[in-house]
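Table S5 (text form). Sequence records supplied for joint modeling of the four-component complex.
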Amino acid sequence: MPFVKKRTNTSDRTVKKDDVTDSAVGHRTEVTCSQCEFSGFLQLFNEMPLELARIFLLRERKVLKGEVLFREGEPFRGIYAIKEGGVKSCLLTPQSTERILGFYLPGELLGMESLRATHYQTTAIVLEPGRVCCLPLDQLELLGDSYQRFQEQLIQTLTNHLAQQQQQFVLSARQSAEERLAAFLLNMAERYARHGLVGTSFRLIMLRQDIAYFLGISIETVSRTLTRFQTKKLLLAVGKQIYLLDTPGLQAIAYSTPPPDSAPAG
Amino acid sequence: MPFVKKRTNTSDRTVKKDDVTDSAVGHRTEVTCSQCEFSGFLQLFNEMPLELARIFLLRERKVLKGEVLFREGEPFRGIYAIKEGGVKSCLLTPQSTERILGFYLPGELLGMESLRATHYQTTAIVLEPGRVCCLPLDQLELLGDSYQRFQEQLIQTLTNHLAQQQQQFVLSARQSAEERLAAFLLNMAERYARHGLVGTSFRLIMLRQDIAYFLGISIETVSRTLTRFQTKKLLLAVGKQIYLLDTPGLQAIAYSTPPPDSAPAG
DNA sequence: CGCTAGGTTGATAGAATTCAATTGTAGTGG
DNA sequence: CCACTACAATTGAATTCTATCAACCTAGCG
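The corresponding structure-token record, covering 532 residues in total, follows.
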């Protein structure tokens, strides 16, 4: 894997589609984690000492829509950080429909459930082209002193993932399709808002079909419920683009109570 | 019966309710983790060095039905290990119905999602009286060499919890009530079977109401689906006692595959 | 221009929720 | 031992919701 020097002069070139295609595989930029735009964002690297950050040079690479980052059963190579674009994680079922476990946005980590396993336990598919990094966490044991501090961060990260996963589970255990979809949209909005984007306007990275599988309802119900939300002036949906018009109203539906909680622990 | 400890002389006394009451709080047995009946079972302590195991003497105590192990928002004291009985974990919603996150059986760990937080993120309520241990994992940092090895075990445990949680999420995203309930019962059976109990006969620790909240269906549907399973000769339900009569049949419902001749990956 | 995949809408049968009534069970005290 | 109470669980009937099958619409694209 040939590495390029840091940051030559990509910014003054107009990015055409061909660039995406030809550089999709193998094109990697040598940037340490601390130099990465997400270094202060991904808590996993918050206080990562420099010598440790250098160990895994961020092997950033572009990915195409439909590309498989890793497949269930493949030997574990590492977890992935999304830098741009979007990914879905799912289980492959023999002949029936796939089971979607979650969606991942820029700044989020993916594949942690396979961390200490020999093989990946899920499959990750790119929904929206962008950039990802593979972090070979299994090589960390080579380290000495910094290792322990990093482990603590890793435990922190895993714990947070666990809490988030539980939150997600609670959302999915809601009864009606309206509750589920409202909770889902609010969750997406919150996650987009984390990246400095406006929390009321965002673009869904997944198909209606994916939402349906994820929430355990049919694709037609997703569509119909979205339409109903629009007639209620709760939001505006133009294809994948979503504009939330009445967040409190959606919260009332999602939590079937007047908006109670303000801000959960970050 | 897994709990055959070298007792003093409790067996020759008839256990009355009063005993449970007076020893419910504060009565602790000083046993190191390695002497605990679950030491070889809880992977977290699998290879725990002795000097480390001695750090937290298992502060086992009896708990009563309805007792709150920890409440959402309380300062974090440690995670809990169930040694006997059963516990449910839930989120408290302002005035509406509680959201149930999961159920915990003997040999399982509880509260890991709050591990590196300052306060508990969930509430744990005892469903079936028994014995629990509080493990003050925040005090571990006092340790030296053994610490790192333990951290690795902790990461392993957290990773497994994450994978299980995802599995649970997938189960809950199933569409029909039959699928969900069948999957739930099979999951319970599997977990009971882990403790050397027969996997086809067990006693539910929770109310129908709890199951309903957990699965996101109504309590009446739980009841009706159970009776439907009984008329199909899939199981026998006498109150909380469950006898699985046709496990493959239930699997066929839970995983919506006609004949699961070969066992799926497990 | 017509193709195709994704998305929406309609009609209908089946499933689940809801309200309501009934039965069952455990605990209490006379 | 029994009635009494409170709570849990079941069952019934009507309404509401959802899945399903189908047709139609839309946008992107060669």
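Note: The beta strands of chain B are 29-31, 58-63, 68-70, 79-91, 99-104, 109-110, 123-135, 201-203, 235-238, 241-244.
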